[in-house]
Amino acid sequence: MNLRFLETFIWVARLNSFSATADRLHTTQAAVSNRIAALERELGVRLFDRDLRSVRLTPEGRAALSRAEDIVRLTQEFQGAISSKDALRGRLAMGAIDSVVHSWLPRLIRRIQQTYPCVELDLTVDTSLTIAGQFHRSELDLAIMMGPVIAPQVESRFLGSLPCSWYAAPDMDLPAEPLPIASLAAWPILAFSRGSKPHQDILRHFADAGVKATALSNFNSIATMMILAEDSLGVTMLPDAAAQGAITAGRLRRLAVTPPPPPIDVHAAYTTQPRNTIATTVASMAQAEAEAFGRRGRDEEGDAG
Amino acid sequence: MNLRFLETFIWVARLNSFSATADRLHTTQAAVSNRIAALERELGVRLFDRDLRSVRLTPEGRAALSRAEDIVRLTQEFQGAISSKDALRGRLAMGAIDSVVHSWLPRLIRRIQQTYPCVELDLTVDTSLTIAGQFHRSELDLAIMMGPVIAPQVESRFLGSLPCSWYAAPDMDLPAEPLPIASLAAWPILAFSRGSKPHQDILRHFADAGVKATALSNFNSIATMMILAEDSLGVTMLPDAAAQGAITAGRLRRLAVTPPPPPIDVHAAYTTQPRNTIATTVASMAQAEAEAFGRRGRDEEGDAG
DNA sequence: ACCAGTTACGTGAGCCGTAAGCATT
DNA sequence: AATGCTTACGGCTCACGTAACTGGT
C-alpha cells in the first residue's frame, strides 16, 4: 500500500478523470492509470467504472474513498504536526510580477514565513520579461510570471489566471458602454512597461481594431498606474484583483470594453536539475494560494451576480 | 512519507530496539536504521534518543507515535474493509505438527476461512520429520513444525514456543516431587514417534541422567498418548496446551520433573522462490495467532501464580 | 571481544515517462 | 481524426542486504 496511490485515487474520484488527475499531480496519464490499476489489483476490487467518456466510482470505490481521505488527511496532519519548522532552511531567491503582488503574493509570503521560519526570502518584483531573464541566468530559484517556461530541466506549473479589465476614474467623460476597444485610443493609455505581454496584447488589440495607439505610457508598477488613473490622467488595464480596493472606494470604475482583455496566466518555474526542494515546496504553496484566491474571486462574483 | 517507515517506527517505539524490530519485521538492522533515519530526515526531528545500550522515544517521537499508530491502523482497516475477500484464492497445502493442532491451529484455520473464503486448505498433520520431507519434495506450500528450515529460497519464521511438561494419571503411584528425570524410566514412557525431536530429547535426557530407557512407546498422535496416560498406562510428555483440558477435568496431573523438558519451538517455512503469496500471508496469520496464544498462556499463568 | 546502531556501496524491484494500442465518437 | 484509458518497454531512483565501521562496556 502506497500513500501516493491513495492520493491519486482520491483525485481521480474527485475529478472523474485520469488525465485531469495526471495534470493536477504533475504526472502522466499512464502513471495515474498504473497507480489505480495497482491499487485495484492489490485490493482485488474494481474502484472505478470506465466507459469511454467517463470515469465513475463503483460502490466499493465509494466505500474506499472516505477511508482513503481519512488516511491521507491524517498523514498530512502528521507531517504538519511533527515536522520540524526548521527542516526546510536556506535562501530562496523568488521573482514575481506585480499582478500577483496585488493578488495572492502577500498571503503566500505570510504562509512561507509561518511554515518555514528558517527560509530566507529574497523577493524581486519586475516584469515577466525581466524575471524570465534573471531566472535563466540562475539569479532566481523560483520565477512567478506570465506564460510557461519551456526549457530542459525546468519545471513549469500553471498557478492560475488573473482576470483583467479596463478601468478609469469615475469622473472621466467616456462614451456609452460597451466601448469598442478602438474608442479607447482617444485617451491616454496607462499601460505596463513596453515589451511586457499585457503591453503587447494592448497593442495587438488596437491593431486588430485598425487603430494606431500612440498615447501608451509605460510603467513598471501597477500602483503607479492606478494612482495616475485615479487622477483621471487616462484609462488603464489592470488585474481586477488590483483594482478591487479602488473600485470599492469609488476612485475607479470598471469599463465594459469589447473585446475584453485577456487574463494574466500566472506560472511558476523552477529547476528540476539541480533539484531545489525549497523552490518546489514554495511552488506548491503558491499553487494552493492561487487556487484559493481564484475560488474566492469566483465566489464573490457569484455572490454579486 | 512511506507507510512501511511508519510501521517500522511504531515497532521500534514498542520494542525499544532496532535489531528486535528488524527480527520482527523480517528485515535487517541496517534497513531499520535507514528507515528511521529517513523518517527523521524527512521530518527534521529526532524521533529516538540512542545511547549505546538503549533506544528511547524523544518527546517529539512520543507525539509522533500516536499519530503514526492511527495512520497505520486506518490503513489496515482500509485493507480489511475494502480488500476483496476473493482476492486471495487458490489451494494451500499446509503441513502441521500435532502440538499446534492442540494449541492454536483451530483458530488459525477459522481465521483463514473467514478472511479468505476462496482459499482451499489441504491439511496434513504428521511429525516434523515427515512434514519437513514433504515440504522439501514440494508437496507442501507451508510447513508448520519444529526447528527452522535452513535452505536457499526458503523463508523460515519462528512462530512461538509451546511449553511442555511431564504428565501422568492422578492415581499413579509416583515418588515425591520434584522427580529427577532418571526416576521416570521405571514407568512406561508414552512418547512421540521415534525419530521426532521430542523423542530424541527424551532419550538424551535419560542418557544424560545415566539411565537407559527401554520402555518408550511410540505414537504419532498426542490424543492417543493422552488417552493411554489417562488410563494409567505410563507417563507422557506433552505440550501444556494439549494437556490443559485433561488437567482441568482431573484426568491427568502435571509432574514436577528436573530438568524440565524443553519447549517445542514452532517455525513456519515456505518458499520465497517461487514466491507464494498465500503461504506468506498465512504464515503471518499463524505468527499472529501463535503470539496471541502465547500471550494468553502467560496471562493465565500470571493469574494462577 | 562483543554488542548495537551507523555508514558505504553494489544490486534489484518498482515506478515513471514515452510511445504505441485500442475502442469509441 | 480526436479523445481517453490501457499496455509495453526502457531507464532511473530508491530501498534493500552485505559488510565494514564506530564507540562504548
Q: Per CATH, which architecture of the largest domain in chain A?
A: 3-Layer(aba) Sandwich
Quaternary state reads homodimer
The end-to-end span of chain A amounts to 46 Å
Can you tell me the CATH topology of the largest domain in chain A? D-Maltodextrin-Binding Protein, domain 2
How many β-strands of chain A, per DSSP? 14
Low-pLDDT ranges of chain A: none
**What percentage of amino acids of chain A are in beta strands?**
15-25%
Q: Largest chain-chain contact? A: A-B, 26 and 26 residues
Please, what is the average pLDDT of chain A? 86
Shape of chain A: globular
- Count of spatially separate domains of chain A: 3
Task: Trace the largest sheet of chain A across and list its strands.
Answer: 4-3-5-14-6
Order of helices and strands of chain A: HHHEEHEHHEHEEEEEHEHEHEEEH
Reported for the largest beta sheet of chain A, the result is: 5 strands, mixed
Q: In percent, how helical is the residue content of chain A?
A: 40-55%
Computed CA radius of gyration of chain A, to the nearest angstrom:
23 Å
CATH superfamily of the largest domain in chain A: Periplasmic binding protein-like II
